[in-house]
Structures are given as structure tokens and as C-alpha cells.
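With this grant's support, we have settled on a layout for protein records. A representative record follows, to show the layout.
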Amino acid sequence: MIGSGISGLAAMRSLTRRGIDFVCLERDSAVGGVWNFDSTDSPDSHPAYGSLHLNTSSKVTGFTGFPVPEDFPRYPRHDQVASYLRRFADEHGLTERIEFGTDVRRVEPNPAGGWFVTSRGPRGSVRTRHFREVVLASGYHSVPRMPNPEITGSAEFRGEQLHSAQYTDPDSFRGKSVAVVGFGNSACDIAVELSRAAARTVLSVRRGSHVVPKTLMGLPIDEIAASRWWSFLPFKAQRRLIEVLLHLTRGRIADYGLPEPDHRVMDAPITISDELLSRLSHGEITVRPGIDRLTPTGVTFGDGSVEEVDAVIYCTGYDMSLPLPADVAFDSEGRLELFHRVVPPGHRGLYLAGFLRPVGALTRLAELQAEWIGDLIAGEAALPGEREMLAESRAHLDRIAGRYGTERREDALNVDVPTYVRGLKQEHRRGRDRAEVPAASGRHRLTDLRRPSAEQPSAS
């Protein structure tokens, strides 16, 4: 197991229930993944920040049978989420199975079967181990993405330039003028927070997006998405209902000074924010188009307007960097190509957990994936042939390309929750039917297949 965020913990509980032996390799010093903000060993490249809260309801973000504490708010703070995940790991006996401070460098197929996993420990020691099967649950917020090519004038700009991964709180920007670049959730959160401390906050938006509040009709949007009645609505009806509700609750996006989206709701990732539109209405955030160039003292935007700023914060996302050979899980265009978003066709014994971008909480999907992975490892379910796996994974990529375009590789992670749930459950049932002989005990030793020389220098 690689990674102990939400998906890693769900998979570990699934294996523990089946009596399957495993070890988890975790880079940080505690469980929690992106929520492990305070104890991260790499604070300058962490996707969390001091004011980060869940943007999904705690009711649907908690694990089955282990609800989020009732005294937590509907949208808990990052440290509350981290404490909940640590308690989950402790109470299910998972913590003692984790090697903390262990950074996985390479996962390579062994021609004779299984996988070689090379990692660096907390004291710098490098070891390579041989596992029958590997569950990769390390997430996809890997490498902060800066503008490429570099914005004209970046070298001459005398202010500070940083990625959102380096942002922690607004204190160092108090009384300054700051430009925030981007229009995703992090960009909006950071702009809203800065607007209460900075002298001037500018939000540079290149492309319009649909801004959706956390609640509609008094209900968290992820609780709506997880409801049974929602799953029975056709996609067109779902989209139309959201469009009507958004029009009634906030009117036209352009009335707030934002660019009107060039696409309909659910044809691209949405931006979730309760506060952005209010701060725009109060004049605390100024919207500008994309940056044309930087000057020594400020920014020139695409419409010719100029802002004198002390800092530019790029909320421009992340590039995915996995410790896998390029031909194992990616297609020729660099998109993840996975059977039901989990299994690389043609590479048995490797499972990618949590590489999804749903509208709503990840937890339910992570648990469904974990149960399927557990059955596959225990031999209680079987995979189809490579041709069928490739057909399903490529059909998904074709649907995503038709809906979102091909400009961003990370769009391959998008899923329509009801459709994905139905498809994964159906495949799980089929997999059980395929399994010729159910595992008698479900017990497999996964950590005893080592190279004769388990510790050796890294090749890199």
C-alpha cells in the first residue's frame, strides 16, 4: 500500500477485514494525505493551507460505520479532518501497519511476477522489496504546475511569485497588493482569505467557470449528488435542475464581473465557493482577465489594464507524477488509462485507488474501489481479459474527451458519480462470477516476497 490518505485508509481497512497481510509506505509522518498539513515533511509543496476546510459535507465524507463526530461542523477544518482520519486508522489497527517517513521512488514490474518497490526511509536508507501486489493510493496532487512557458517579464518582476502549494496564510501579505491567478477552488479560497488582509486583491481569470455554492435548497450539493433520487435522474435533467437553481440563487455570473462560462454546467469542473460572489459584490476582490506580461512592479493583463502588485500567487494546479514506468498506466497522450479507473490493462497486481475527480465526496467511491480491490487480491473476484479492459478504459477516455475536451490530461480523472457507481458495482458482481474458486480463507502474504538483497543503493 502506498499512501495513507482517504483512499489508502479505505483500502487498508478492506484488506484488514479479509485477513490479508500488507505494509503501507507513507511519505509523511502521519496519516491523512492532503489533510496532514501541520505535520507534513514538505510544507513548501503541500496542497493544503491554513484555512483549508472540507468543501464536501462531513455527513458523506465520513467512512461507513465510522461517522465524523457530531460536534464537528458541516465543513470541518483541515486539522479536524486529519484528527478524524488518524482516529480511524488507530481504531481499525491500521497505524501499526504503516512505515512513516518512507518515500516511494519507483514501482516496477518484475518479469517473473509481482512488483519491485524502491523506497527511501526516514534516515535516507534505500531498499527495494518484492511484493505480489501493489495498491497505489498516493493521490495526484504531485508536482506544482507553474505557467509554461514562463510569463513574459517574470524575470524582471521585483515582487514575490509563488505557487498555491507554497501559500499557508495571509499574514505575510497583510497590507500588500496581490494578484491570484486561477479560478479553481484553491484560487477562490485564497483570494477570499487575502481580501480580508491584503490592501488589494486581484483575481486573474482566463476562462469562466460555474461558481456553485456549497448548499442548494438548504442541502449540501454533495449530499444531493449522493442521494438515491438524484442517481435516477437522467444526466440532462440533472444539469437542467442545477442550472435553474443557480439562476435563482445567484443570477448571472457576468453580473459579478466574472467572465461568462463558455460551457454548460457539468461540461467542465465547477468552482465551489460560498464567499467569492459576496466579496466580489462588496468590491473586496477585483477581477481581471489572464496575465499578458509582468513588469518590474506589477502585471499587465490581456485587456491592457495594469495593476501594481507586490506578489503573484499561481493557483494553476498540479502535474501528476507517479513512481511508475510511463507505459504501465498512461496512454500515448499521457492520460491515465485504467479499467474502471483502477486497474491498468495488461498489468495484473497493480491497483490505483482514489484517482478520481467526482462532484462531491471521494469517500464513498474510495470504499467501493477498496472492496473491489480487496476481492481481487483475495481471489474472490477476477478481472476480464486485457481486450475487454482496454475497451472499457478507452471508452471512458473518449467520453471524457467529448465532454471536457483534450486540453487537460487531468480531466481523465473526472467521473459522473451515479454512472461510475453503477458501472463499478456491476463489474464487481461480474468479477465474482468469473472467480472460479473463491479463496478458502482470504489470507495472502504480501510482504514476504523480497529480493535476496533487500537493501541496496538507489540507481538514481
Summary: The CA atoms of residues 89 and 95 lie 5 Å apart. The longest helix spans residues 386-404. The mean pLDDT is 88.
